[in-house]
Amino acid sequence: MAHRGLHRRIVRSGAGLLAGVLLTGSLSAAAFGTGPHPRRKDEYKHQVEQLEEVWRTAQLNDDVAAMDKLLADDYVGITMMGQVVTKMQQLDRMKNRTLVLNKIALDDVKVRVIGSTAIVNSRAEIDGTNEGEPIHGTYRYMRVYTRTPAGVWKITNFEATRVGAPGQQAGRASASEK
Predict the structure, then answer these.
(1) Taking the CB of residue 83, how many other CB atoms lie within 10 A of it?
(2) What is the pLDDT of residue 38?
(3) Domain annotation covers residue 22
(4) Other CB atoms within 10 A of residue 99 CB
(5) Does residue 37 register a pLDDT over 90?
(6) Which of 25, 28, 144, 172 is the most buried (most CB within 10 A)?
C-alpha cells in the first residue's frame, strides 16, 4: 500500500514537471518573439497593405459600411486636429460629412508585422474639409491593425500629425499659418 502511494506521488510530480517544462518552453518562445513564419509574415504584410487601400477608398467615398468592417469595436483614433474619437464617433463623422477628404495621396508607406499586430507608418497628402474648414497639407500617420483569432485584420488605433513645411521647426507655425 505504501508502495502504491509513492508511485502516485512520482507520477504526479513527473506530470507536474512535464507541464512546467512545456509551459516554460512556450513562454520563452513568446518572450523571444518567434512570431509567425517569415512567409506568413510577408503574407500578413501584403494583406495589411491591401487593407490600407480599402481604408483610403472608404474614406474618400464616405463608405461607412466598409469603414465599419475595418474598425475594431474598441477603436481609438487621434485625428489630425488632435481630437480623440471612438469607432462610433468616426463613423458619425463620415455619415454627417463632418470630415470630407477629396484627396489622400500616400507615400513612404511602411508596414511592420509583430505577431498578430501590424503597424503602418506613412505620409499622406490631404485635401478636404473638417467641420466646414478647409484642410490640406502633409501628414504623418500611424495606424495599428490587430489580427483576430478568426484571421480578420481590424484597425484598433490611428494617429495623424501635421508635417511642417520644409525648413520649419516642429511646433512652430509659419507666419502664414498664424
Answers:
(1) 13
(2) 67
(3) no
(4) 21
(5) no
(6) 144
| Helix or strand run (H / E) with residue 145 | strand 133-147
In a domain, 136, yes or no: yes
Can you give the pTM of this predicted structure? Answer: 0.72
Number of separate domains in the chain: 1
Residue at 68 is within a domain? yes
153-162 sheet: strands from edge to edge: 84-86, 71-78, 153-162, 133-147, 117-130, 99-114
Q: Which residue range is the domain that position 57 belongs to?
A: 36-164
In our burial notation (b when 16+ CB lie closer than 10 A, e otherwise), range 145-161 reads bbbeeeeebbbbbbbbe
Whether 177 is in a domain gets the answer no
Average pLDDT over residues 83-88: 97
Is 33 within 8 Å of 115 (Cβ atoms)? yes
pLDDT in tens, 95-115: 999 999 999 999 999 999 999
Non-local CB neighbours of 56 within 8 Å, separated by 6+ positions:
104, 106
Residues 135 and 127: beta-carbon distance below 8 Å: yes
pLDDT class of 166 with cuts at 50, 70, 90: low
Q: What CATH number does residue 118 fall under? A: 3.10.450.50
